[in-house]
Each structure stands twice: as C-alpha cells, then as structure tokens.
Automatic annotation (TrEMBL):
This is CoA-transferase. InterPro entries: CoA_trans_fam_I, NagB/RpiA_transferase-like. PANTHER family: ACETATE COA-TRANSFERASE YDIF (PTHR43293), CHOLESTEROL RING-CLEAVING HYDROLASE IPDB SUBUNIT (PTHR43293:SF3). Gene3D superfamilies: Glutaconate Coenzyme A-transferase (3.40.1080.10). Coiled coil: none annotated. It comes from Amycolatopsis heterodermiae. It comes from the Bacteria. Belongs to the 3-oxoacid CoA-transferase subunit B family.
Amino acid sequence: MTRADVAVVACAELFRGDGEILISPMGYVPALGARLARLTFEPDLLLSDGEAYLLESPVGKPVIEGWQPFRKVLDTVVPHGKRHVVMGANQVDRHGNQNISAIGDHEKPKKQLLGVRGGPGNTANHRTSYWVPRHSTRVFVDHVDVVSGVGYPRAREAGLRYHDVHRVVTNLGVLDFGGPDHAARLVSTHPGVTVGEVVAATGFPLVTEGVTVSREPTAEELELIAELDPKSLREKEVPE
C-alpha cells in the first residue's frame, strides 16, 4: 500500500452516499476514486466520459449505458444539484473560496492560469470537492487572489440554495469546512502523516479537534486499484 492508494480511497469516499447522481472527477486520482466507488459501495453513480456518454463498466473497455451531452448536463443536471464535481485548486482559503484563475493582482497577475472556468457555476449549483496533490502554504492561503469557486460566506450572502463545498483531499490528508462559521477543519491525516505536518503546510489556522487517520484500502480495493491503474500512474501524481 502506498500514499497514492490511500489518496485514491479518500477520493472514492467523497462519493459515499451520493447515490444516482452525475459525478465529474477532474484529475487522474479523483477519476480512479470515482471508478473505485462505482465498483464497490456506490454502484448507482453515473460516470461520464466528459463528453456525451455515460459509462457502465469502469474496468477494462468501458460499456456505454447512456447518452448525456454536455448541453443537457448544463440545462437539466447542473442547475438542480444532481452533480458532484471534483476540481483542482491553485489556491484555497479557510472558508472554501478556490482560485484557478490567476496568481497576484487581477489587473496585472504574476501568473495567468485557467480562468474561473466552471468554478462559479459548480459551487453555486451542486456539491463540489477539491483535489490538491501537493499540500502546501502556496495552495492553502489566507485569502485567494481570485475567487473562482465560491466559499461559504459568499454563498450565504448570495443565498445560494445548492452550495456545498464538501471536502478537500490532498497528499497529506482530508479537510472539510465543518469548523465554526464553516472554517477549514482537518478531518484525517493519511497514514504516516502527523497533524503538525499538515498544520505547517497550511497557510491559515486549521481546526484540529477529533482528527482521525484516513482509511486504508481493503485487499479487494487494492486489487481493483491495480486493475484500474496497471501502470501505477497514480504514484506520479501523489508524492510521499
């Protein structure tokens, strides 16, 4: 078992209890986690190929079980809270605001990134989680430079009905926003990682009461992960 295997399971756990909704995992490890969840404890998840098809078999050659073009996703799924997306994040602050747009002053940024993309719509309309493969103070900052994904205070001010920033999975552990006034809280550290290491790698105060150790994969899950990722590409994404 490796840190990458634990991260895959942590991403799978993001979807526990979701049931029959569309999931959109962005990134290799979140995609493995989604497929693992579909194969084990959440068989009703709807897996998309990212374009127009829903896939039945997440192992081997996928079998198409449905047709759902992106326009239909935007018209009938996204506005009604029936989706769970896992996005990346260049910056996240203690109240769940996320940035994938630019680093530095918005008028003259030091680095131009993707732009806000689907961040505002995702966080306004349905459950959103984040995947951060390298947990550091550069990512977890006191204030994001640009708000791409909407955090809790802004969502409350705007009265967003379906806003739900669920969790953040990193190479060190799992965070949520269950602290006072939806402040960031450390839920679990991955095996071999201490609470102190996570706190030191985070650029804002973390709630650290009741921290557990992230669940290790079962023997069955390890076999499935190896089958889903025979070239072990997950190891390149998750540093020890």
